[in-house]
Amino acid sequence: MERMTMQVSRYRPGRDNEPVLQSYEVPLRREWAILDGLNHIKDHVDGTVSYRWSCRMGICGSCGMTVDGEPKLACATFLADYAPGPVRVEPLRNFPVIRDLVVDIGDFMRKLPEVKPWIIRDEEDGDGENLQTPEELDDYKKFSMCINCMLCYSACPVYALDPAFVGPAAIALAQRYNLDSRDDGSADRRDVLNSPDGIWACTYVGECSTACPKGVDPAGAIQRYKLTAAGRSLAALLLPRGSR
Predict the structure, then answer these.
(1) Which residues pair with 3 in a beta bridge?
(2) From residue 139, how far is each of 109, 128, 143 by CA, in Å?
(3) pTM of the model
(4) Of 77, 86, 166, 177, whose Cβ has the fewest other Cβ atoms within 10 Å?
(5) Is 17 exposed, middle or buried (0-12, 13-18, 19+ CB in 10 A)?
(6) Is the per-residue pLDDT at 183 higher than 60?
(7) Superfamily of domain 106-243
(8) Where is the 4Fe-4S ferredoxin-type domain (predicted)?
(9) Domain extents for the chain?
């Protein structure tokens, strides 16, 4: 059976001063993803290797890693694409490393509720349905596909330099609700999104959208909100106060 070398980043608190690469030989099978290679190592070679995974279907977002320098989902990235190897597997960049390939995503989890990623209603419309047209659904559907995998934060050069940046995924999720015809909460999200650490920190490099495995296009969401915010500011400047 063909085999391939995986170079896995190892960091064990209290033992390692910094991450080091450790090489493992795994079977090279056409249908195996990076995650299958890691599971083989864990089950048959070295049970101390630590990493996150859950669904194996590109839905949960928990197996985000850096594969040969690029942020990827380990369950959707195939070993055969890196043959004959070696392939280097490291933790996501721009996050503190807890152990091996496991990173601390607490910063994102603290920022997420700040943008209120849920439907906010001014008034309840009784027990009836909040119907939408296909066009209204299409307006926000793409931004609803985020799986919180953090690949966009790992790819973002702004977040790498300034961790105070709200970040691509959080802003895209805010836009998902701002664009929802059932939502009345855009004003509640305005201060966070319109802050110096919000949309205006983004320099539109676009790496977040390139890295997204679900085609969410966070960069597009940010630029769209910039136009909304600029239009609102211009209207406030030009229109008489009583006409706003």
Answers:
(1) 27
(2) 26, 22, 9
(3) 0.91
(4) 86
(5) exposed
(6) yes
(7) Alpha-helical ferredoxin (1.10.1060.10)
(8) 133-166
(9) 3-103, 106-243
